[in-house]
Write a structure and sequence with these properties.
Layout: E1 4-7, H1 23-34, E2 38-42, E3 59-62, E4 67-70, E5 73-77, H2 82-94, E6 99-102, E7 107-109, H3 115-124, H4 134-137, E8 144-147, H5 154-160, E9 164-165, E10 174-178, H6 183-194, E11 201-205, H7 211-216, E12 219-222, H8 228-231, E13 236-237, H9 245-252
Parallel strand pairs: 1-2, 1-11, 2-3, 11-12, 12-13
Antiparallel strand pairs: 3-4, 4-5, 6-7, 6-8, 8-10, 9-10
Helix pairs in contact: 1-9
């Protein structure tokens, strides 16, 4: 019996085309709540970048599991080791890379002119964060970094930052987080808070940073707009975010 449902945001709850939650998803959430099933966000976004949505959530896994909370109660906070945050920023400055950092309540970017950063802003529909020179970012407690760099750099960066991981979900940039963090660890903290077993939860996602969630949840659902490697980790592949994938899966799996 499913007692909790976890949802990625971009490409899962929100369409990349419309940036809206679909009518079918809204109806599906109403039915989940009628049945007493808890609903949660499970996202790479920080709290400051989670937009208002016409559906309700009982808690949040944010920054790929680095910061998780229910109401005003923080269940898990696990930043990147400060030495490695600063080492990344030194590397970004040396290599002239655009980067963003997410702290507990703020976010910063080191340039407003990078075309990839502006494409991210447009794709995810958020305002560009405040500008802060790379050197001045050092010393900030950071839970997640956006590293704007091609995948060819990933191995070098991971060798430089042994206590970090790169859950990449876009060819032109990657998230950078504490190696102990993932959506699965964040979900586990919320399930423990509610006394729910992992086999009693379902997770929905479409990106590379959703793989651990799909593996962890009792039922992992990949959207049809996900890459094949993400779908390979799912128990069920539904229709796309633009074709009522969430509602269709919940009905096909007899959850609503």
């Amino acid at each position: 019996m499913i007692k909790a449902a976890f949802f990625d945001i971009d490409g899962t709850l929100l369409s990349f085309k419309t940036h809206l939650v679909s009518p079918g998803t809204i109806q599906a959430f109403e039915e989940l709540h009628r049945q007493g099933i808890h609903t949660f966000i499970s996202s790479g976004r920080p709290k400051v970048l989670i937009p208002p949505m016409p559906v309700g959530f009982d808690g949040y896994v944010t920054m790929n599991g680095g910061y998780c909370f229910v109401g005003n109660q923080v269940l898990l906070r696990n930043p990147i080791p400060q030495q490695e945050t600063d080492r990344w920023l030194q590397y970004a400055e040396q290599e002239n890379l655009c980067t963003m950092i997410f702290t507990e309540h703020e976010m910063f970017v080191n340039t407003h002119s990078d075309p990839v950063a502006n494409a991210i802003r447009n794709q995810l529909e958020f305002q560009m964060p405040p500008l802060l020179p790379t050197r001045q970012m050092m010393g900030h407690e950071t839970f997640q970094v956006i590293a704007i760099m091609p995948a060819e750099r990933d191995n070098d960066v991971l060798q430089m930052l042994p206590h970090c991981r790169l859950p990449r979900w876009h060819p032109q940039f990657s998230d950078l987080v504490n190696a102990d963090n993932s959506k699965a660890t964040g979900i586990d903290s919320i399930l423990h808070h509610y006394g729910i077993d992992r086999n009693e939860c379902i997770g929905f996602g479409d990106g590379g940073n959703d793989i651990e969630m799909l593996d962890f949840c009792g039922i992992g659902v990949a959207m049809d707009n996900a890459d094949d490697n993400v779908k390979a980790h799912a128990d069920y592949v539904t229709t796309s975010v633009d074709d009522e994938g969430i509602a269709n899966a919940l009905r096909e799996l007899h959850i609503i």
